[in-house]
Amino acid sequence: MSQQHAGYSNSPTVGDSPTSDSSQLAVAERAAPPHAYGAGLLLLRLTLGLTMAAHGTQKLFGWFSGPGLDSTGKFFTSVGYPSGKTMAVVDGLSELLGGFGLALGLLTPLAGAAVVGVMINAMAVKWSGGFFVPTGMEYEVTLAAGAAALALTGPGRLAVDRYLPGVRAHRAGYGIASVTFAVLVAVVVLLARH
């Protein structure tokens, strides 16, 4: 593919220099306000986090027309998890606390990991239904990917983590370690399923 077709011109224009492409990119990056990134991450955190927290309250308390703890426990038993009611509590708390953690931007890598672990198990339960809803797992994949992305990137500027020493400066290693931990715990839980 020639440079002409790739969006580049071989002929210089007024003001072009060998470094103009990189300097234009640097100017464009500085022009994007950091508050826009923070607002975008806040919107993602609130949507994903509050959705997960609401699911947790459905399972734990029966709120929002949810099944409640007893019915959720029976469901877990029916799909092969030992001690269904205990699993329902663990799942509900992971969704509730992980969801609120994401929404607030509080301990974001761990909150994201909680959601990822729950969604891996949900995907395993729905695996035979294919990818697309109503029987598939596209919803769970989307939630897991969003939670993992937040764990890896951090919560942005508009988050509680920004005021906590130790996590104030988000590092990719925190997210990688948290998501890896979530995957390992999810696999252990899945191995207990019969």
Task: List the SSEs and their pairings.
Layout (H helix, E strand, L loop, with lengths): L19 H12 L2 H28 L6 H11 L5 H21 L3 H19 L11 H16 L18 H20 L3
Helix pairs in contact: 2-3, 2-4, 2-6, 3-4, 4-5, 5-6, 5-7, 6-7
Largest sheet: none
Q: Rounded to an integer, what's the Rg over CA atoms?
A: 22 Å
**Secondary structure: number of strands:** 0
By DSSP (H or I, 4+ residues per run), the number of helices equals 7
Report the average pLDDT across residues.
87
Describe it:
By secondary structure, the protein is an all-alpha fold. It contains seven helices and no strands. The protein has helices at residues 20-31, 34-61, 68-78, 84-104, 108-126, 138-153, 172-191. Helix 3 (68-78) packs across helix 4. The longest helix has 28 residues, at 34-61. The chain is globular. Residues 1-18 have low confidence and may be disordered.
Short description:
With 194 residues, this protein is mainly alpha-helical.
Give short descriptive properties of this protein.
194 residues; mainly alpha; 7 helices; disordered N terminus
